[in-house]
Specification:
Elements: H1 2-26, E1 32-35, E2 39-43, E3 51-55, E4 61-64, H2 68-76, E5 82-86, E6 92-93, E7 97-99, E8 105-106, E9 115-117, E10 120-122, E11 128-130, E12 147-151, E13 160-167, E14 175-177, E15 180-181, E16 190-198, E17 202-203, E18 212-213, E19 219-221, E20 224-226, E21 232-233, E22 244-245, E23 251-255, E24 264-270, E25 275-276, E26 281-283, E27 286-287, E28 296-303, E29 307-308, E30 317-318, E31 324-326, E32 347-350, E33 356-358
Antiparallel strand pairs: 1-4, 2-3, 3-5, 6-7, 7-8, 9-10, 10-11, 12-13, 13-16, 14-15, 17-18, 19-20, 20-21, 22-25, 23-24, 24-28, 26-27, 29-30, 31-32, 32-33
């Protein structure tokens, strides 16, 4: 009977040891894992992500993963020569080798061109070369770097602009160096999109996508100002316009060609005596002038024999005394001749009073 019981307990003991050993070999989180010297072992902790235990010491170690307390105790007290990496962080290298957490191939050889670690490859001489792109690196979304900005200096009569700087996402050449993927601070390829052109009476300011309007009254030139809605209007007055003394614009001018025996006339254009010193803007960009004095032109005099109308004079001017004139229209200061009794071919003389007399 004793032998039967002894045999029975022996079977249970062997089975228990077999199951426990199988759990370690199979990577079960029930007990833990064995990390042999010179290897990289994948482990599956109970409440942590899959990890890779790299053992470059001269000893073999048991890695406990049954409970968080055991696992954390191991992580916080790693033996010398043992390191941890993310399980997807590294792959097998060369012939029979594994990468340690620094990307060095251990336990094997690494030919030139062999992927060694993210963003680098083996150079065949025990070192590494950086590579331009690596699928391990994520695409970089650069939208967070985009912004609006202003170009040019604002002025009521000038032009400046609203732009949007749009950075391109990094989807190729994602490596910045060995073991280094690019991030948002590496976004440097962009386009500048014009959003608004801000001309007269408009301006761009700060992070703008549209123009702002100058306030009403901003000066934009002679008899021009902003209307507050992004356009221009005529102000009532502008100090750059001259003061108009209407009287100085009045003048006389002659009509017709003067002749000692003929008649021409003198016209007077009278612009009054007003002085325009305010409300001097006539229209947008135009100052008032003499036409705004309301002047009118009238006949001032008719200048006949021995008289003539001359520009700028207010009365008829006399021909020079002694100038020949037609005596058929002449009269003597002492006598008045009846028409028909004076020879048609006689010659008179203009006197100093502008009359034709017979000498």
């Amino acid at each position: 009977m004793f032998k039967v019981l002894k045999k029975y307990w022996l079977i249970i003991l062997v089975a228990t040891l077999f199951i426990s050993t199988l759990g370690v070999i199979a990577g079960s989180t029930t007990l833990g894992y064995r990390a042999n010297s010179g290897t990289a072992t994948f482990v599956d902790p109970a409440s942590d992500t899959d990890r890779k235990v790299v053992n470059e010491s001269g000893n073999d170690y048991f890695v406990p993963t049954k409970t968080d307390a055991e696992w954390n105790a191991f992580v916080n007290n790693l033996p010398a020569g043992v390191s941890l990496c993310n399980s997807t962080y590294l792959n097998a290298c060369g012939t029979g080798g594994e990468y340690n957490c620094a990307g060095t191939c251990i336990g094997g050889t690494c030919p030139a061109g062999t992927y060694a670690h993210y963003c680098k490859e083996c150079d065949g001489s025990g070192g590494f070369d950086a590579i331009a792109d690596d699928n391990y690196c994520d695409d970089v979304n650069c939208d967070t770097e985009n912004y609006y900005y202003t170009s040019g200096s604002p002025s009521p009569t000038g032009t400046n602009y609203c732009y949007y700087r749009d950075y391109s996402d990094i989807t190729t050449n994602r490596c910045e160096g060995e073991n280094n993927c690019k991030e948002t601070n590496d976004c440097n390829s962009y386009s500048n999109d014009l959003k608004a052109t801000c001309g007269t009476c408009k301006y761009a300011s700060g992070a703008c996508s549209s123009c702002s309007n100058y306030l009403e009254g901003e000066d934009t030139g002679t008899c021009r100002e902003c209307d507050g809605s992004g356009g221009e209007q005529k102000p009532a007055d502008d100090s750059s316009c001259p003061v108009i003394d209407c009287a100085t614009y009045s003048y006389y001018y002659a009509n017709g060609s003067p002749s000692v025996d003929g008649t021409n006339t003198l016209t007077h254009c009278d612009y009054g005596t007003a002085v325009i010193s305010s409300n001097r803007c006539d229209s947008l960009g135009v100052c008032k002038d003499a036409d705004d004095c309301g002047g009118q032109c009238v006949l001032a005099a008719s200048c006949g024999v021995c008289k003539k109308a001359v520009d700028g004079y207010s009365t008829c001017q006399n021909y020079t005394e002694g100038t020949d004139c037609n005596c058929s229209t002449a009269y003597d200061i002492d006598k008045v001749y009846i028409a028909g009794f004076i020879p048609s071919n006689c010659t008179g003389k203009c006197n100093s009073s502008g009359s034709c007399i017979i000498k």
